[in-house]
Amino acid sequence: MSRAVSVEGLWWKYVGRSDHALRGVDLEVERGEFFAIMGHSGAGKTTLILVLTGIIPQRVPGEFRGRVEVLGMSTVSQDVSEITKRVAVVFEDPEIQFVMSTVEDELVLSLEPLGLSREEIRERLKWGLELVGLDKSFLGRSPLQLSGGEKQRVAIAAAVARRPELLILDEPTSDLDPVGKEEVLAAIRKLRDELDMTIILIEHESEFVAELADRVAVLSEGRVAAVGEPRYVFSRYDELKSHGVYPPDAAAISFKLGLDTICRYGDLFRALESVRDRLFVHADRIPNVEKVGEGEVLVECRDVEYVYPGGFRALKGASLTIRGGELVALVGPNGGGKTTLAKVVSGLFRPSMGEVLVLGRRVEEYDRLTLSSLVCYVYQNPDHQIFNKSVYEEISFGLRIRGLSERVVRERVRRALEVFGLKGLENEHPFFLSKGEKRRLALASAYVLDPKVLIVDEPTTGQDMRFNESLFSNLKALTREGRAVVTITHSIALASKYADRLVVVKDGRVIADGHPRSVLLSPAADEGRLIKPQAMRLAKQLGLTAAPVSAEEFLEIVTLR
Amino acid sequence: MAGPETQVKAVRKRVTWMHIVLFAFATAISYVLAVVSSLIFPVLGAPGVSALYLAAAIYVPLGIWMGLWGCLAGYISCLFLGLYPSGYTFIQSFIWSWADFIEALLPLLVFRALSPDPDFTPKRPGAAKLLPWFIAAGTTILFLGIVVQLLWGATYGEPFTTIYVVMVYLGLALACVGIAMGLIAGHARTWLATILSVIAAAFGSGIWGAGTLTLWNLPPPLPAELFWPVFVGWVAGDLIVLSVISTALLVALTPIFKRTGLFVRGWWA
Amino acid sequence: MPTILGELAGVESKSSRYLSLHVSTKIFLPLSFAVAIFFATDPIKALLLAAASAGACVAAGVPLSAIKRYLAVIVSMSSFIVLAFSLFTHIPGKTLFEVTLLSMQAEKGVFEWKLSLTDTGLTYALTFILRIFAMILSATLLMATVTDRDFVWGLLSLKVPFGACVATSLFFRGLQLFASDFYTIREAMMARGVDFERTSLAKRFLLYVNALIPLLSLMITRSYEVSLALESRGIAPGSRAASGYYTFRMRRDDYAVIAVSVTLIIVYVLWGRIP
Fold first, then answer.
1. CATH number at residue B117
2. Which candidate from B23, B57, B156 shows the least CB-CB separation from C212?
């Protein structure tokens, strides 16, 4: 019995849906293996996890077909409570995993079903926390007061304290900022190195998968599109992209330079170091540092300060100018003031000091209706801003409260549906849209108001690269209409590729503002804890004169003789 | 070695974590809205009583969607409302809060009797939007007319009797228009059940709620003389909230509960 | 760990021996005031009860400034109680003040509506008002000394099924979560152009429908995700805590406070029987 997981011919359809979420999945995971699963959003990854725990089909209504065995137990006939004594899951959103008021209670709750004694529970609490790099002082704290990375590590501690034979991690880093991601990854590395357990990791970031996994499977539209060692899977570069999976830059670079596919950054660096004398930099292809800021000034913030009602000073003299035709990316660590600055720019928050001018007029001089037509803010969680029971009603909501005629409303809604790929979904209830569709709906609802400035808060969280590339491409297209788009994001790779300006916000101040390349090369990048694109790090380490922001740019500039 | 291929059409009929978690969160939302309502739309002199009690818009539809979970959500949110910010004792609150349990229970019973598989799809959206106002206005005017007769008309005769008659006829007329609109708005039994639920919930909860605040409790926090003002305020406010907001939420969210399989056809599962 | 009143209203009790009592004790004492209120049928009894509950709050470390939050409640209730005994009815007794507000010839006599203050009416009003103080103080004592963790641990130690215990914990967590959601949704509506300040009350009321749709949608989505996370932890709603981790021991202080509570009830019951 060396297999941890055996899946044969798995089909699953949720109740109320017309399509199957999983279509004939066949998969095997060996005991002790570190197995990764990748795929585009909606491919069926989380559904597969729920099948492996028996929650599907025992707790979730739907139609199930196939054979699934986990650690020798049938997930259909063995009760969920028995399966989950040996299988532990950590979900994407750390918030939903906490039901108790302290970390201690959270960990104890996880251990209760195991029938351990009080002393054994105490031992496991300590052990679980140490394993993820947290100490005893966290026991008395409320999980809600922790940072994103700490929350997720507590969730992992609660899972591993049960000493499961199979640990499943469902996109554990996707909701986190770069600092949080690093903390969680360090914890996962430790688990892999110190514990003898089978680990299944669902992840979008191919760099992490390349570093950690023994094997990886790619799910697409409910089917397994590829499975094997990362080296082998990531060599199918173009095919993977069509499934919404983007191999790490290292794989793309090594493959296109004619080397054997290398997935890990460290391995690629060593390989290229060894052929350093054969690397040729085409100086004429190195992009010039581009000029920024020539369009009409739409919004100007001067020395803005903002203090929250509790007394926390979120902005301490931040200044920012936004011009028409540019895509501006606001980046920086969590808690640095990016969202606060964005809300001040949109007029949702009035600054305690300083001034905000929209089209040359102070923001206080505008009424809400007019201001929201000029500067529109789109929230990170689309569920916060969907107020109606159909897609059509939602998009038209803003137009209706402005008293526009039915004919104008119909026309503008039709255009918004087209631009954001929502045609055919007019009568659908927004609740049943996918995450990506909801995000596009939120954007469409703002776009339809024809704002001069569109502010989008972290639109890429939890989405696959294909969606994110498409989204940024859409946002870029909007700037060609003369609008400005400001996006808050943690994805430096995307920001470098699409944004005209990178603005780094830290500790309530703007510490850098310029072209992405120049900002990433400046000391502000380290100060703002920005994770530079792999291609840029590689070029720097190799001592090349270029600073490419993507694998494509690297390959354009550097060839192997 | 895997077993033979399995085909399962999973049907959930037992109480699961989904019911419990949804109930807990619904109770929390109800409490938040209860506090907000009692602060924004207070009935002076009767803490916890709100002229427009938004919390009812949550737990009354929840009762229709999820059975007794909605009733329990109403009860517990009211229990905590009684403790803070209303300041009633635990015993007073324990007794008073049954008003909100009744408020969710009566619509649940009406729907089980008349329309156990409700369909709120409006065939005539205009009628569906207007009918709540006719029902709320008609029932309130009718009710006020009856109160006038009870308190003054029986003892003093004219002009109170004339006022009573006019209000009864006007109220009945408006309510009948509302009922007629309900019958043509969409699925007749569903809309009829909605109208009857609103009226039953408002009066049923009002009798218990106002009664336990003024007439009976251990002890009632307010004097008996305040029964009629509290009762009238309670009923009128509930009629508006339930007919306008609850109905709108039932139309908007019933499809979600049905398509996700959350709709409870038993009492708890 | 903030108390329930601390979480809801930001009022925190000072550290005291009372706070470390068993949760049943901390619930029983306010309950005993609640029972005694039933027998506080005259101003003296009501005043003593109010004083006793104020004393209990002080001993428990509850800042009496917490009463500030109830000021509006106290004032409005008091006013309406006085109005109840002077405007909505006439309590027989020595008339201290009387004015006719409305006098109308009706079919069967003269309908008069008077504001009439009598000594008996004032006594009744005073009793009610003092009882309100006792009521509010005992509710404050409960909410300002019990934490949500107390409730949950209490239930777990009593081997109440996990379903009820987790539901209790989620209720308290949900308060903060959905209050924050409500404000974000309201803000999002403003971002779309809704101006709550300049909108009429009627229109604002209708806009609440639009605010409740995302709130309930979020409730359903979150419930689904949390329930999946709970299922994956292998805890059945009907199972109970078996590890013995959640144990509470009653101490001497607990027995002393319970004895005081029982004495209070007995005293008031007996006092109430004295003619």
1. 1.10.1760
2. B57
Contact (CB<8Å) B158/C9? no
pLDDT at site A289: 63
Strand pairing report for A34-39 and A215-220 = parallel
Burial class (CB in 10 A: 0-12, 13-18, 19+), A80: buried
In a domain, C154, yes or no: no
ipTM of this predicted complex?
A: 0.88
Give me the half-sphere count of Cα atoms (radius 13 Å) on the Cβ side of residue B145.
18
Query: Do the chains contact at A81 and C235, CB–CB below 8 Å?
Result: yes
Are residues C234 and C266 part of one domain? no
Spell out which residues of chain A touch residue C239, defining contact as CB-CB under 8 Å.
81, 112-113
Residue pairs spanning B and C at CB distance below 8 A: 207
Domain that holds residue C130: 1-146+246-275
In-domain check, residue C184: yes
The number of beta carbons lying within 10 Å of the beta carbon of residue A537 is 16
Cβ contact B10–A65 (<8 Å): no
Same domain, C187 and C91: no
Asked, for residue B231, whether it belongs to a domain, the answer is yes
Whether the CB-CB separation of C108 and C132 falls below 8 Å is answered with no
Tell whether C152 is covered by a domain: no
Residues C137 and C272 in one domain: yes
Per the CB < 8 Å rule, is A74 touching B2? yes
Residue C101 shares a structural domain with residue C67: yes
What is the Cα–Cα distance from C201 to A310, expressed in whole angstroms? 29
Query: What is residue C274's three-state secondary structure?
Result: coil
CB-closest option in C73, C84, C179 to B47: C73
**Preceding amide of A57 cis, omega within 30:** yes
Range of the domain at B212: 17-121+187-259
For residues C210 and B32, what is the distance between their CA atoms, to the nearest angstrom? 17
Both tokens assigned to B21:
């978690």
C17 and C90, same domain (yes or no)? yes
Residue type, B123: K
- B54 in a domain, yes or no? yes
Burial code of A419-431, b = ≥16 C-beta within 10 A, e = fewer?
A: bbebeebeebbbb
Token couple for A13: 């359809």
For chain C, which residues score pLDDT lower than 50?
A: none
For residue A133, CA distances in Å to A155, A178, A196, B94 come to: 13, 17, 18, 46
Element (H, E) at C160: none
Task: Check if C218 contacts A (Cβ < 8 Å).
Answer: yes
Classify residue B153: in a domain, yes or no. Answer: no
CB atoms near residue B230 (< 10 Å): 22
Token pair recorded at residue B61: 């539809």
Provide the number of structural domains found in chain C. Answer: 2
Contact A121 C243 (CB under 8 A): yes
C125 and C258 assigned to the same domain: yes
On whether residue C151 sits in a domain, the answer given is no
C23 and C122 share one domain: yes
| pLDDT bracket for residue A439 (50, 70, 90) | very high
Q: Which residues pair with C113 in a beta bridge?
A: C102
When divided into structural domains, chain B yields a total of 1
* Partners of residue C99 on adjacent β-strands: C115
Residues C18 and C130 in one domain: yes
Cis check for the bond before B159: say yes or no (omega within 30 of 0): yes
Q: Which of B89, B160, B249 sits opposite C106 (nearest CB)?
A: B160
Using one digit for the tens of pLDDT, what is the confidence trace for B6-24?
666 655 568 989 999 999 9
**Measured CA distances, C177 to A144, B29, B258, B259, C180 (Å):** 10, 9, 26, 26, 5
* A387 with C242: Cβ contact below 8 A: no
Does the beta carbon of C192 lie under 8 angstroms from any beta carbon of chain A? yes
Q: What is the pLDDT of residues B224-269, one digit of tens each?
A: 888 988 899 899 989 999 998 999 899 999 988 988 888 999 899 8
The pTM score is: 0.89
